Predict the structure of Solute carrier family 5 member 1.
Amino acid sequence: MLSPWQGFGWTAQVFSSSSALDVLVIVLYFLLVLGIALWVIMSCSRGTEEDFFLAGRSLVWWQIGAFLFASNIGTGHFMGLAGKGASSGIAVGAFEWNAAFILCALGWVFSPVYMKSGVVTLPRYLRKRFGGYRIQFLLAILYLVIYIFSKISVEICTGAVFMRLVLGLDVYLATVVLLSVTGICSVTGGFAAVVYTDLLHAGFVVLGSVLLMGYDGTEALRTHE
């Protein structure tokens, strides 16, 4: 039985269909992201824990909303979720509808409790609630492991595969590029850099989705049985 990845070597470049415009758009996007991160580094304070992790509590509601949207929607949806919907049906979209209810519960039920207690992370809240550092340490490690293997690795993999298909770039090199840009923005700019770069990402995601629908993207929904 043939593997679905047979002939799809990680370092092969035979699938590249890029043009000069494709390369220019991607390079400009990365430069724009780095430019926004540099602007945040130069203009925003990161001297305290509140400044670094909460952007000095200076963000407004629509920035937080766009950040939550952009943090959730990525290459895993455009490639993975879309592919799963094409092969198995649109019922897979129920995951996203369920997430909307969870976000409402987070905002209206849990967030006021966290804000009143003066904490910024769930592990710290549990340490404050039950005492001791072990529960905070174990929960932080558990969240890191779950997030790395269920979210970050998928986003990095699909992003690298996309860059390979479009640019013919080696997947491992694309992974290094993606991790480097992400690390520079997050570590040096703090939460403010993440939010402002996600605002850019949210705009491109919405605009790109609308443009894709213009290519008769709703035809499958109208003919779905």
User: Anything to note?
Assistant: Residues 20-78+139-210 form one domain.
